[in-house]
Amino acid sequence: MHLVIIGGSDAGIAAALRARELSKDVRITVLLADDYPNYSICGLPYLIGGQTPDPSKLAHRTTFPDIDVRLRHRVTAIDPAGKSVSIERPGDTTELRYDRLIVATGANPVRPDIPGADLPGAFVLHTIDDGLAVLDAVRRHRAGKAVIIGAGYIGIEMAEALQQRGMHVTLLSRSDEVMPGVFSEIGAMIRERLTTEGVEVVTQAGVERIEQGMVVEQRLVVFTTDGRRRPADLVILATGVRPATDLARDAGIALGEGGAIAVSDTMATSLPDIFAAGDCAVTHHRLHGKPTWISLGTIAHKQGRVAGENAIGGSRTFHGIVGTQSLKLYDLVIARTGLSDIEAREEGYEPLTVEIGAWDHKSYYPGATQIGVWITGDVKTGRLLGVQMVGRAGAEVSKRLDIVAAGLFHGIDVDALNDLDLSYTPPLSSPWDPVQRAAQDWSHAAARPG
């Protein structure tokens, strides 16, 4: 059997490795459009910020035993009837036949539909080459000005990275607050932290256009809807990504939510012998059971592993997601999982959210800091729906959230969090962990009349 995989990032390499683990006989070929197999795209802000100065350290692995990884092999078409793919490579074109195919083409960055978004000096950040281009611009404009359009995860991480490089950074958000996926109180904390470090944060700021400036080295000017002109030595377009599915669509593979490739829970597509995984494929949310699309490395690794196993004859299933994410900003950690109250209401739940503050460990032991916990449950059934947390680095915010993510995955009630046998020692926690304290407060609030 010849297994061909299009794409060599998280999902593609995970698929190849799993297939090789299970079979020594299958022939595995991975086709990459670039030179960077299995590199951590999530690490780009730390490359640019200087925490990881060597780009090669972003590679999850550098060897792929008994896997034919072909660099600079861009797939231009899939022929399902002939079971082959067309490839452009340096100097020529060719075709490659397959018995089973995995499409792991990932996602493409969105360049906003505004005049000037394609000017030199306006960067997206999605590939290693993107990161190296931004890093080169940063080095050429030390102590210069940067404007970031978009205040989601990437925009916020890049604000820190560029500020730490000595640039004057302006972060533009179209929403009322930064990071609109979290509760507004958490967004306000993020904005305050950025402002404290000298980042100019502008909310409710749409961008009308970007123009070439009249200064040396192609300086840009960003025009915003508040009538301001903001000069910039570089502009970061952090306005999201969309699934890279042109190849699949042109081959007749059915698409689903968000334009991503529709897949079963075995990662099979609508066409025989073709699977898909990662940022190009849909997933399903365990809290509402509907197909959804979200671009996360954690999902890509898991889906890739399932696709790799099933492409060589396995029967593994992918069990979906609960929407778990985290972010570190300076010494602040923000994490969320599940549904917010707004999202829960849209799915037909009757949500109640309770906020508490709790010490990360016993206050009599030095270094205790406060953690904020927002817990959401369904008052009709008591079902746990989601948690958002914020606290200082070192308070184990992200790992505490994983307790909730595990509970959500298995559909537990809010009150069931109190039954979990969690670890305790005064320097690290309390007899009742902050997650459990929040669950208790939620249960009391839900039991009150009215």
Automatic annotation (TrEMBL):
<dbReference type="GO" id="GO:0016491">
    <property type="term" value="F:oxidoreductase activity"/>
</dbReference>
<dbReference type="InterPro" id="IPR023753">
    <property type="entry name" value="FAD/NAD-binding_dom"/>
</dbReference>
<keyword id="KW-0274">FAD</keyword>
<protein>
    <submittedName>
        <fullName>Pyridine nucleotide-disulphide oxidoreductase</fullName>
    </submittedName>
</protein>
<dbReference type="InterPro" id="IPR004099">
    <property type="entry name" value="Pyr_nucl-diS_OxRdtase_dimer"/>
</dbReference>
<keyword id="KW-0560">Oxidoreductase</keyword>
<feature type="domain" description="FAD/NAD(P)-binding">
    <location>
        <begin position="2"/>
        <end position="304"/>
    </location>
</feature>
<keyword id="KW-0285">Flavoprotein</keyword>
<comment type="similarity">
    <text>Belongs to the class-III pyridine nucleotide-disulfide oxidoreductase family.</text>
</comment>
<feature type="domain" description="Pyridine nucleotide-disulphide oxidoreductase dimerisation">
    <location>
        <begin position="328"/>
        <end position="429"/>
    </location>
</feature>
<dbReference type="InterPro" id="IPR016156">
    <property type="entry name" value="FAD/NAD-linked_Rdtase_dimer_sf"/>
</dbReference>
<dbReference type="Pfam" id="PF02852">
    <property type="entry name" value="Pyr_redox_dim"/>
</dbReference>
<dbReference type="InterPro" id="IPR036188">
    <property type="entry name" value="FAD/NAD-bd_sf"/>
</dbReference>
<dbReference type="Pfam" id="PF07992">
    <property type="entry name" value="Pyr_redox_2"/>
</dbReference>
<dbReference type="InterPro" id="IPR050260">
    <property type="entry name" value="FAD-bd_OxRdtase"/>
</dbReference>
<keyword id="KW-0676">Redox-active center</keyword>
